[in-house]
Amino acid sequence: MHVDLYQGLEDAIVAGDTDASVVGRKIVLPSSFTGGPRNMMQHYQDVTAICRTIGTPNFFITFTCNPNWPKISQELQRLLGQHMEDMPDIIARIFRMKHT
After folding, report:
1. Looking at residue 100, what is its pLDDT?
2. How far apart are CA 65 and CA 90, in angstroms?
3. Ranges for the Helitron helicase-like domain (predicted)?
């Protein structure tokens, strides 16, 4: 049995749907998708609720990670030509994996 991967696209073109904005499905990412707009809004709302309840923070604490962690090196080697400073999303994701 042969399955044509582009059958849906071909059907849309044959039907005259040449405007790409009406072809396909809209996918809404849940707030659990790290880095998505709903996730960022949820974090913002959490922070404002905390500040409203206990007041504004007195200190701003930052955390750093070692860019030479093996997992970071593995991911950057997989993405040829990329450097640690080019991929802050990978660094943040690995940091969260290690500290949650």
Report:
1. 64
2. 12
3. 3-98
